[in-house]
Design goal:
By secondary structure, this protein is of the alpha+beta class. It contains eight helices and seven strands. The chain has one domain: Up-down Bundle (Outer membrane efflux proteins (OEP)). The strands form two sheets. The chain has a four-stranded antiparallel β-sheet, with no helix packed on it. It has a three-stranded mixed β-sheet with strand order 1-2-5. Helix 3 runs antiparallel to helix 6. It starts with 18 loop residues before the first strand and ends in a 22-residue tail after the last helix.
């Protein structure tokens, strides 16, 4: 029996809003209960991103290993079905023997002869108490574990690609803005140095600008290092060595924010997220192991039959008097094994309780992850609004200062200061928009990514045939 899904219709204590609202910022509509596209990353409308995800799906070694593990578990299940069919074997044993009549109280001498034995054996185990069936059920659940693990890797991989592409674009934009900022500060420093030498401004002004310039220059190497690491990560995720992979060079504003975001209900989430379904399949394995351990407490029954031919020469092996056969049934039952079987069953029950607790913890973590992502989108909209306001004010201030400079009412140093403030505001805006894009991707990942909407998917069940 599957665990019951959550009954709550919301992820947070307060009901989620229908859209992320903030003045002057494009809203994101949260469409509750709407289906999530299996290729959700295409909502960012970036061809380079689509190509990277496709490349990673075809060449990522971790994903290939998971696919091989899934095939292995499916083959193990198919092999396990053999226990429900009769087992047929054949053998041919040529032997040379010495027979001693003295073993039977006879006084004649020993004899040496050849003996040829051709035989077949048929056996069939009766699954009276269901132990074998529960073992096959556990193998089927293992297939589900590997299937959901593979789907989870697809989801994680696509999410990592999107995050890395957004980070790569944002780092590139930040580096460009920082270089412009450094150029502005260098100009300010040069002018202030000349003014300090002329005695127009205090020398402390020059020291302050030099400190600011050094601090800003120190920001550039970490950004360039993070950009390089992000590009290396994208290469590895795509199954390519960093030396063989050209940087994607996605410009920051090539990525379009998804305006309509489907949000699954909590009751649907537990039937869709791969990690939750994996935990549920592990719970299924533990349940089946209880059944197998219980069946081990009871007798086992086997039907068997042998038919063969014995002869001292190959020429008479198929004579009518060379045949022998046996037919019968066997019963094996545990009698005195101490507490072994009983506590093996108890251990299986304990394992089930552990799996159930881990399943509940996985569900709670998933609900919290979605709640965090929904809150993040709302706060991201507010951050983008605030940084957009700051950027707009800095832009307007720069235009005013430039106009006053053209009119001769302010000096060039004031223009450079206004330009510095503008570029600082631009850096903040870039980071806010990048965070909003990444949190949007995080929400899609938290919701499970829509893999169950693929044509081949069977959410909540196995595609491998079940036991007869």
């Amino acid at each position: 029996m599957r665990p019951k899904p959550p009954v709550n219709l919301h992820y947070t204590f307060e009901a989620e809003q229908a859209e992320t609202t903030s003045p002057g910022v494009s809203p994101q509509h949260l469409d509750r209960g709407a289906p999530t596209a299996v290729d959700w990353w295409r909502l960012f409308d970036c061809a380079k991103l689509d190509a990277l995800v496709t490349q990673s799906f075809s060449a990522n070694p971790t994903l290939q290993a998971a696919q091989a593990s899934l095939r292995q578990s499916e083959d193990s299940l198919r092999a396990g079905y053999g226990i429900f069919y009769p087992q047929l074997g054949a053998s041919f044993v040529p032997a040379r023997q010495q027979f001693s009549p003295a073993r039977f109280g006879q006084g004649t001498g020993p004899s040496i002869f050849n003996l040829y034995t051709l035989s077949t054996t048929v056996s069939y185990a009766l699954d009276v108490f269901g132990g074998q069936r529960r073992s096959i059920e556990a193998l089927a659940a293992q297939v589900d574990i590997q299937r959901y693990n593979t789907e989870g890797l697809y989801l994680t991989l696509s999410g990592n690609i999107v995050n890395a592409v957004v980070a790569e674009a944002a780092y590139s934009a930040e580096i460009e803005a920082t270089r412009q900022l450094i150029g502005s500060l260098e100009e300010q420093t040069s002018i202030t140095a000349a003014q300090a030498r002329a005695g127009v401004v205090p020398y402390a002004n020059l020291l302050s600008l030099q400190t600011q310039l050094g601090t800003t220059e120190a920001m550039l190497p970490p950004l360039e290092q993070q950009l390089a690491h992000t590009r290396h990560l994208l290469a590895i995720l795509s199954g390519i060595a960093p030396a063989d992979s050209a940087p994607p060079q996605v410009t920051f504003f090539e990525l379009r924010l998804s305006e309509n975001v489907p949000v699954s209900l909590p009751s649907d989430l537990v039937r869709q997220r791969p990690d939750i379904l994996m935990a549920e399949a592990q719970l299924h394995v533990a349940s089946a192991q209880i059944g197998a351990a219980t069946a081990a407490l009871f007798p086992s029954f086997t039907l068997s039959a042998d038919y063969g031919l014995n002869s001292t020469s190959l020429s008479s092996l198929f004579a009518s008097n060379a045949a022998f056969w046996t037919m019968g049934a066997s019963l094996a039952t545990p009698l005195i094994q101490g507490p072994t079987l009983w506590f093996q069953r108890q251990a299986a029950i304990d394992n089930y309780q552990q799996a159930l607790a881990l399943y509940r913890q996985t569900v709670l973590a998933a609900l919290a992850q979605v709640a965090d992502a929904l809150d993040a989108l709302q706060h991201d909209a507010q951050s983008v609004h605030a940084d957009s306001q700051a950027l707009g004010a800095a832009t307007e201030a720069l235009h005013l200062i430039e106009a006053n400079y053209q009119a001769g009412t302010v000096n060039y140093l004031q223009v450079l200061i206004a330009n510095y403030q503008y570029q600082q505001a631009e850096l903040g805006y870039i980071r806010a928009v990048g965070q909003r894009l990444q949190d949007t991707a995080a929400l899609f990942v938290a919701l499970g990514g829509g893999w169950w909407n693929a044509p081949h998917a069977t959410a909540g069940g196995s595609s491998v045939e079940t036991a007869p």
